[in-house]
């Protein structure tokens, strides 16, 4: 009885505007179009493979400076050698570039709280690296801080 009722409903809908029609896309995939209030609505999103849907949903960053490049001439002064990719001074410089780009982003998008959290984490990481570099090599620390235009923290007195 249920199948007969569905078939009679499909027969009634076949003569009205609510009948789904098969269609093909440019890629050759078959999808369906349904007519709602006289306008056809494509349901191709569900007909596409998952990999294609994932590619179409990717967001491309407008500003590529979120990850600065090591080959920039501005980074050359912080490298200790030609193949340097991880010295403290270079890491501080790279973090500073990322912090600058996130700060510019947050000026426009004030309520981007996830970005605010990421920025605070980067600031903490840069602070820890600066402390380490200051303990290890004071001369390199002052060179790095002046080269980046950062403020040097004043010596804090211990409570004890």
UniProtKB/TrEMBL annotation:
The keyword Ribonucleoprotein applies. GO terms for cellular component: cytoplasm; ribonucleoprotein complex; ribosome. InterPro entries: Ribosomal_uS15 (IPR000589), Ribosomal_uS15_bac-type (IPR005290), uS15_NS1_RNA-bd_sf (IPR009068). Keywords: Ribonucleoprotein, Ribosomal protein. It comes from the Eukaryota. One of its GO terms (molecular function) is structural constituent of ribosome. One of its GO terms (biological process) is translation. HAMAP family: Ribosomal_uS15_B. NCBIfam families: S15_bact. Belongs to the universal ribosomal protein uS15 family. This is Small ribosomal subunit protein uS15c. The lineage of its organism: Eukaryota, Viridiplantae, Chlorophyta, Mamiellophyceae, Mamiellales.
